[in-house]
Amino acid sequence: MQHSLPPLSALRAFEATARLGSVTAAADELSVTHGAVSRQLKSLDEHFGVALFTKSGRGLVLTHHGERLQSGLGEAFAKLRDSCTLLKHEVEEAPFTLACPGSLLARWLIPRLDRLNQALPELKLQVVVSDAEQPGQPETSVTLAFFEPPWPEEGELITLMPEEICAVASPRLACACQNADPATLFANKLLYTASRPQAWPQWAAAQKLNGSTLETALKKGQGFAHLYYLMEAAVAGLGVAIAPRLLVEDDLNSGRLVAPWGSIETPARLCLWLPKHTNARRSEALVDWLLRELKG
């Protein structure tokens, strides 16, 4: 015959009362009312059919049956507390791994990495380059990337900001265009990355520019494997590049590049993706920091 265990909350109330020798002290430790502890103790008496405490003056003392129960529960709850403490320590001390595409890592996160580590030293942050701008790397705590629909079905996706792309050029080349008319760009060599072939068409469509003219200009343009090379080509005056505004903002602020033709919003979003195993409390601090940094 199997015997059901009494509720864990009742056993916890009994263990605290027996250890502390007071219902009031047990209630304080458990952050509940005196009456709640008393009701839990009464439910145990009814469950076992015997009294576990007896009154002694203003206090309580264990009965013989109570001592039998306390001897086992004291050790069990001590082991439970130790296990929980060890697990919490292990989780909080484990490195927090942030995966990030190389272009976003090099052009936005690394210049801010020292500020991030100073603001959140408890994260013990480790940064790795993601293989693609999609989640799924093993042993990764979170992934920071630009995501486009369809959104990942698993885990949690936290949107940080919409993606904007802009056409950028060296100040000298931009001056040679004479005005901010987007149509003037097609007279220049168009630069792009192989990983974002849709960027120029998205930009041209938003500017209501002729698609066939763009297609002709792209055939005369030049592609680059990485955004870093693309930006250096633009700074050198080799043509007009298309890139996420977030990744060229520092260059625009410093005057290395200019973007007189404006920006357009794409369907993509800068997001932080959290797999199911990620510690939510630790990731919340990172989300708050990212939002502050992006607004700044």
From TrEMBL:
InterPro entries: LysR-type_TF_proteobact-type, LysR_HTH_N, LysR_subst-bd, WH-like_DNA-bd_sf, WH_DNA-bd_sf
Protein name: LysR family transcriptional regulator
Residues annotated as domain HTH lysR-type: 6-63
Keyword Secreted on entry: no
Keyword NAD: no
Superkingdom of origin organism: Bacteria
Source species of the chain: Vreelandella piezotolerans
Pfam families, sorted: HTH_1, LysR_substrate
Keywords for the protein's UniProt record, in alphabetical order: DNA-binding, Transcription, Transcription regulation
Family assignment from sequence similarity: Belongs to the LysR transcriptional regulatory family.
